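To: structure desk
From: M.T.
Subject: fold request, one chain
Message: Could you run this one when you get a chance? Sequence is below, nothing fancy, just the single chain.
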Amino acid sequence: RGRSRCRRGVRFGRGFGAACVLLACLSGAQALTFNVDPAKEECLFEDVSAGTKVSGSFQVSTGGFLDIDVKVTGPDERTIYSVSKETEGRFTFIGAETGTFRFCFGNFMSTVTPKTVSFVLVVGEGTPASQIAKAEHISPLERSIMDLSAALSQVQAEQEYMRMRERAHRNTSESTNARVLWWSVAEALALVAVSVFQVFYLRRFFETKHRV
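Reply: Done. Structure tokens follow.
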């Protein structure tokens, strides 16, 4: 529906068509959070047209040493991006051909702990101006709106990335606080146990000495 409205907007009014570009651009970002089980791999698939810019970012928020293997593969099975045991990262590429691209996250280094991964994918930068009107038919205002739409798309991707980082740092802080709490409880119990042992030991020592 969104696309048909944009096309009618071009036919009846160029201003509405430029506004549709802005909405189309903002709808291109996808944010996902999912779990990757130990010794398993989770893959996401996205259809991309040739010449389309694809940007992505990922971050491991919970699980083990907060590391993951990431691999991006094109329709021709060629590896576009690959990293191993990374906590976070970003990638950007231009689709060389039209087809289905594969984004895989592997947790093969872990045999017990699952990993929670946050992933943001931005495909394209809105509808190209050539699909709306010719260059001479685009007013300076519409061109400014198109430039603004691309900038807003980048800002949206950056916000999602910062949310991922904030979530990961919050989880790390909460985990550290929990460990400190349990360590303090363990220390207190150890001190109580040592104190009780010393009391009984000294009491028994003096009772034995008194008998002698």
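Reply (cont.): Confidence is low (pLDDT under 50) at residues 1-27. Let me know if you need anything else for the meeting.
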